[in-house]
Write a structure and sequence with these properties.
With about 260 residues, this protein is α+β, with helices and mostly antiparallel strands. It has a domain at about 5-125: Photosynthetic Reaction Center, Chain H, domain 2 (Alpha-Beta Complex). It has 5 helices and 6 strands. Residues about 110-125 have low confidence and may be disordered.
């Protein structure tokens, strides 16, 4: 079983049976009077007219936000009816243990007193209880304390997604082409031979091949950068406000008393 502070935090949680079926809310945790270890849980059975039932904590464990018991729903529902007055007698504990099929020792009751010692204790008390079963000579005053912690929950997700877009790219490319240029030269002694080699009056054609550069476009894939995601933790402070209840004890009556 987990440590006592952890088990005490089960109050208010949902208890489920061995098959995971809901039993109800845990109203209270009862400790062993000698070892101060958790021994019993009082479960509010919402599905059965608001009845509350005692359930042993032996074999009970946490299951996420729920508390899972090794008992069936029928076992808990049909548990002997015991007044949750803050203590269990030896007879009540023995009856509950037999109902759940667990062994019960004959020593001092874990969360109450043996049958023979109860009256002796009452004889030593001053006054008597008028609001319920007899307890001891003192009244316990309790109050709620605010316990604030943190829990991790998912607030969103981020992902990297790569997709392809098309854009127009313009660039200037220098190209060359050939053009015909007419050159004229006068007849001189140096070229008169070439000029008269073809006869006096003839028809003639002369051809020159022209060429030009054309723009050729090709594409290649070039890696540009690496992109990854990382997380940064940002620390911030948040104000928490919650109401807590506490018990107060007053003395009523006509007699004089030390009210400290």
């Amino acid at each position: 079983m987990p440590e006592t502070p952890e088990v005490l935090e089960w109050r208010g949680r949902t208890a489920v049976d061995s098959e995971g079926e809901k039993l109800g809310k845990i109203e209270e945790i009862y400790l062993d009077a000698e070892t101060e270890r958790p021994e019993w849980a009082l479960v509010k059975l919402g599905s059965f007219g608001g009845k509350s039932a005692f359930m042993p904590l032996e074999g009970v464990r946490e299951d996420g936000e729920q508390v899972k018991a090794p008992f069936s729903k029928e076992q808990v529902k049909d548990a002997p009816s015991v007044d949750p007055d803050g203590q269990l007698s030896q007879q009540e504990e023995a009856e509950l243990y037999r109902h759940y099929g667990l062994e019960y020792g004959e020593g001092r009751s874990g969360s109450g007193l043996p049958e023979g010692d109860a009256d002796a204790t009452r004889d030593e008390t001053v006054g008597r209880d008028t609001s319920g079963p007899e307890t001891d000579s003192a009244m316990t005053r309790s109050e709620e304390e605010l316990k604030v912690g943190t829990t991790q929950r998912e607030t969103g997700r981020a992902r990297l997604k790569k997709y392809i877009v098309t854009e127009e790219v313009q660039t200037t490319v220098p190209v060359q082409r050939e053009e015909v240029r007419i050159e004229r030269e006068p007849i001189t002694d140096a070229n008169v031979g070439d000029a008269t080699a073809g006869g006096d009056l003839t028809e003639e054609e002369h051809e020159v091949t022209l060429s030009a550069e054309e723009v050729v476009v090709d594409k290649q894939v070039v890696p540009k950068e690496r992109v990854r995601m990382d997380k940064d933790t940002v620390q911030e402070e948040r104000q928490v406000s919650e109401s807590v209840a506490k018990e107060q004890i007053d003395i009523e009556g006509d007699g004089e008393a030390d009210r400290r």
